[in-house]
Amino acid sequence: MDDTERVRIDKWLWAARFFKTRSLALDAIALGRVRVGGERVKPAREARIGDRVEIVQGESRTVVVVQGLSAVRGPATAARLLYAETTESLQRRERQAQVRRYGAEPAATLQGRPTKRDRRLLEKL
């Protein structure tokens, strides 16, 4: 984790354990789901200490500040030292977790067309 080390942003995202594989990190960058300093980046862009990285995964949005560089994926405890999540991002994630826990979306349980069994149950009512 040397400051003079040069690390591509896709490798850093993989090493920091935001994505399970490097190809998933590449896809997210190509789709514009990763922004550095508010701007879209290319996978070859070098990560620098102090960069503000915004990562969108599904419905969650995480904003972190790069604190260390590594091109090697290590244990989660070591990966956690590579970045610091902003307080706004932490608060937003906690609110989203509470909403998911206490107020599940009713439409999330729907799975396409009703089955024959569902139709029969509706007819009984």
Describe this structure in a few short sentences:
With 125 residues, the chain is α+β, with helices and mostly antiparallel strands. The chain has helices at residues 9-15, 22-30, 76-80, 87-102, 116-124; strands spanning 34-36, 39-40, 52-57, 60-66, 83-85.
Structural overview:
It is a single chain. Helix 1 crosses helix 2 (22-30). By secondary structure, the protein is of the alpha+beta class. The protein has helices at 9-15, 22-30, 76-80, 87-102, 116-124; strands at residues 34-36, 39-40, 52-57, 60-66, 83-85. The protein has five helices and five strands. The chain has a single domain, classed as Roll (Structural Genomics Hypothetical 15.5 Kd Protein In mrcA-pckA Intergenic Region, Chain A), CATH 3.10.290.10. It starts with 8 loop residues before the first helix and ends with a helix. It is 37% helix and 17% strand. A five-stranded antiparallel sheet has the order 2-1-3-4-5. The mean pLDDT is 90. Strand 3 (52-57) and strand 4 form a beta hairpin.
